[in-house]
Amino acid sequence: MKRPIKTIGFDADDTLWHNENLFEEHHRKYCELLSRFHDAETVEQTLFQTEMNNLADYGYGIKSFTLSSIETAIALTDGAVSSDELRQILDYGKAMLRQPVELLPEVAETIQTLAKRRRLILITKGDLRDQERKIANSGLGSSFEHAQVVSEKDIETYRRVLRKTNTDIDSFLMVGNSLKSDILPILELGGRGVYIPYRLTWEHERVSEPPQESERFFKLESIKQLPDLLDSIS
What we know:
Structural class: alpha/beta
Distance between the termini: 11 Å
Strand content: 5-15%
Strand order of the largest sheet: 3-2-1-4-5-6
Number of strands: 6
CATH topology of the largest domain: Rossmann fold
CATH architecture of the largest domain: 3-Layer(aba) Sandwich
Helix content: 40-55%
Low-confidence stretches: none
CATH class of the largest domain: Alpha Beta
Number of domains: 2
Mean pLDDT: 95
Order of helices and strands: EHHHHHEHEHEHEEH
């Protein structure tokens, strides 16, 4: 029998606050910028492949995305992209880094409620400086006993974080918007996961076969449903 939930882990981007919408807007401007060279589908596909090729070197986040955007622009235009256009791409990236943190609906109230009843930890991947900025500006930081920014979310990373925070997988629940990064590794470790989809999903985070809902995997429409779910599985 599973032990009661004592610790809840939360993803940050697109689980607690908006993030992917910033990339959506960048893509729109970027495709428009390069429209005299290629159609939007070609630009999007080439940019994604460049991002995948650069993941091992750059990791995740806005800075790595901006570098891949510049590289893609040079490649797609055979070097004909102008310095002014490259500067615009840099400006797009800087604007994304300066965006205020916008919490998703009901997040602040739900986190405040859960922090009184459970131990909360934050596990997010991406650029360290940007993630720390968002955590600090979110107003949620004090609700989390521990916040960890990681370069990847896989089984070994979760093992390390759980060990570092003295968390037992049998009493742990992970909440996130990515099946690939937030849920599947935890299920493989024997823990429990709650999937709360965001309206946008980056291609790299999509999975072909989502898990079936069970006693260890749950899907919610909104984070505000989480306290009631915890009551029902406790």
